[in-house]
Amino acid sequence: MKSINYTLLGDESVAKDFGKKGTATDITIYDKKDAGFVKTWTIPTGFPEKIPPLLQAINMGEYVIFHVSKLDKFTGEQIVALDVLKKNKGLLTHSYEGR
């Protein structure tokens, strides 16, 4: 069976829509079997308190889903980590709250 691994960064509230929650420590993994594929989404739940979970989660994913809900120093740290680890495949989304 083939697998696809994603890293989910930014607003992690969308993860529950992707699959079933599995392992949860410094990183949380959601998974789902779908049409001959096992899909996993890895979230660095120990970040921003600790940097290693961010780097581990990014390294585990083939693709990154970066859902930005606000621009702050933590968003900047995630962008720098993606650049340093040369992750350039994925999806960038954002939420919009008009004010």
Q: By helix and strand content, what is the structural category?
A: alpha/beta
Instruction: Please bin the fraction of helical residues.
Output: 10-25%
Arithmetic mean of pLDDT: 91
Structurally, the number of domains stands at: 1
Q: Quick one: biggest sheet?
A: 6 strands, mixed
- The Cα radius of gyration reads 13 Å
Characterise the protein shown here.
The protein is 21% helix and 39% strand. By secondary structure, it is of the alpha/beta class. It has one domain: P-loop containing nucleotide triphosphate hydrolases (Rossmann fold, 3-Layer(aba) Sandwich). A 6-stranded mixed β-sheet has the order 2-3-4-1-5-6, with helices on one face. The protein starts with a strand and ends in a 5-residue tail after the last strand. The model has no long low-confidence stretch (mean pLDDT 91).
Salient structural properties:
99 residues, globular, alpha/beta, six-stranded mixed sheet, Rossmann fold
Please sum up the structure shown.
The protein is α/β, with parallel strands linked by helices and 99 residues long. The protein has a single domain (2-94), classed as P-loop containing nucleotide triphosphate hydrolases (Rossmann fold), CATH 3.40.50.300.
Structural topology:
Elements: E1 2-10, E2 20-24, E3 28-34, E4 37-43, H1 52-60, E5 63-68, H2 73-84, E6 90-94
Parallel strand pairs: 1-4, 1-5, 5-6
Antiparallel strand pairs: 2-3, 3-4
